[in-house]
């Protein structure tokens, strides 16, 4: 494995899981990788934690993520179907600890 490439497993809303390779040396967020790979997320606010349209549920690897910011928590708290493992993909900056993380696109609101 290239030391600057990780694999994130993404489950779409149909239940299909696909591996997505992502660079960790470009300061990209998970949202940017999902959009670049044409996953069905809106990302309306462009990564500012203002819309929650990039919400994902972290199925594996949650313990490797940075703690949630107050802004992220406040935005997630507006979702009617929030899960304990829900996060905003725009707030998850890719790093090597995320290798083999599995996320599921959150249900559409």
Key attributes of the depicted protein:
109 residues, alpha+beta, Ubiquitin-like (UB roll), five-stranded mixed beta sheet, globular
In words, what does this structure look like?
By secondary structure, the chain is an alpha+beta fold. It has a single domain (5-105), classed as Ubiquitin-like (UB roll), CATH 3.10.20. The chain is built from two helices and five strands. The protein has helices at residues 30-36, 70-76, and strands spanning 5-11, 17-23, 55-60, 86-88, 102-105. Strands 2-1-5-3-4 form a five-stranded mixed sheet. A hairpin with a 5-residue loop joins strand 1 (5-11) and strand 2 (17-23). The protein is globular, with a radius of gyration of 13 Å. The protein starts with a strand and ends with a strand. The relative contact order is 0.29. The mean pLDDT is 94.
Q: What amount of the residues lies in strands?
A: 15-25%
Radius of gyration: 13 Å
Strand arrangement across the biggest beta sheet: 2-1-5-3-4
Percent helix: 10-25%
- Name of the CATH first level: Alpha Beta
Distance, first to last CA? 37 Å
CATH topology: Ubiquitin-like (UB roll)
Number of domains: 1
**CATH level-two architecture:** Roll
Low-pLDDT stretches: none
Structural class by SSE content: alpha+beta
Main beta sheet strand tally, sense and closure: 5 strands, mixed
Q: Would you report the number of β strands?
A: 5
User: Looking at this structure, what is the CATH superfamily?
Assistant: Beta-grasp domain
Counting DSSP H or I runs of 4 or more residues, the number of helices is 2
Give, in order, the helices and strands.
EEHEHEE
Shape: globular
Q: On the 0-100 scale, what is the average pLDDT?
A: 94
Keywords: 2Fe-2S, Iron, Iron-sulfur, Metal-binding
GO molecular function, one term: electron transfer activity
Family: Belongs to the adrenodoxin/putidaredoxin family.
Cofactor: [2Fe-2S] cluster
